[in-house]
């Protein structure tokens, strides 16, 4: 058996997977009699070494051949050529193609994904998404909290649980929202979700029915629009200016079931909804009996003074469905968000959640509850606020030094991103393409418009890169701009 070798060389350029090539070659050798019934095959490690492939590739080939009936594996003894060849011995072993859909599917609902920094190629500096710098996450503290949570909660945390989420986390969040955001909230008016997108989806499923209309900011947050559309609702754009959502335009719309907005740091322009418009919006919602879905995705990060309190802190009529997240504070991968709303709505949302997702990750929720109760999350926020302020300042300084004539912007008072308008003659969409050639990723304004209309602006996210990385990113942006302008004037 040591003298046996595959008669067909592996082709690394072939579209056929290597494990299928190996399986076909082995089956052909059985058909030709080079491998006889009952003859032992090389071990998966030995064959992998001789072929220069990963052992898993050989294991996959053996599994495919065994499923076809060409070989048999006996635990403790090894793998052997089957005593009898398959009935259809002339057929080559192959992976059966998955069938196309055999039932009637409804028309697809259009969704529009945003660029994600996690998908950036190696070596590229990403200004794509407003994500925290996970390199600064207190991972040892988090690991310790997980261990303590499992020790204290044991099997209870691994069992089925209430769809509202971990009681300790809801209590801790309620205390934080009351003390830091001025909200009248209790554990009974909170529901823990898998990130803020989970909260948006749950609010949409609970509130909306096919044919309902939801007013949204434009430019705005596309994943929220997708959540609304997936319920069968219509999304109606309302423009944004330097004071936030144009409430005067909203008042002229026909009936809507809800308004979705990001009043603290408008997504993506970063402007704050003015005090006058806040009062006008709340009065209009009360008179119209319309729900306000407030997405306060980065409330913790304010650099030049105290934060503006949420609309929910002024709500005395039960109008606001408040969406928040811990993803921006800790890490997106933890998938922790929450929905705060009147108790009657939360009760109904919990029933909807039970039918869709059942519950969240009890261990993670318990661990983060420990960090909140011990003040570790608050300490981390204070540290990150200082770090991100310095990073904002570094980005602003670099932009002014290298791209001052190409970009016009207002320094954001908080948040995780900077919104910059391009000068006449500078095409934001083409610049973004040229930036990729230079190794820097950023998003142009057209990604955020309702009808994909061009918007000659850039959204630059500064929190996930260090100061020297931000300066290098701006240098690459300048290189991309130079290349674009030279190409235009050729």
UniProtKB/TrEMBL annotation:
The keyword Ribosomal protein does not apply. Pfam families: Aminotran_1_2, GntR. InterPro entries: Aminotransferase_I/II_large, HTH_trans_reg/aminotransferase, PyrdxlP-dep_Trfase, PyrdxlP-dep_Trfase_major, Tscrpt_reg_HTH_GntR, WH-like_DNA-bd_sf, WH_DNA-bd_sf. SMART domains: HTH_GNTR. Residues 16-84 form the HTH gntR-type domain. The keyword Glycoprotein does not apply. Keywords: Aminotransferase, DNA-binding, Pyridoxal phosphate, Transcription, Transcription regulation, Transferase. GO terms for molecular function: DNA binding; DNA-binding transcription factor activity; pyridoxal phosphate binding; transaminase activity. In the C-terminal section; belongs to the class-I pyridoxal-phosphate-dependent aminotransferase family. This is PLP-dependent aminotransferase family protein. It comes from Corallococcus exercitus.
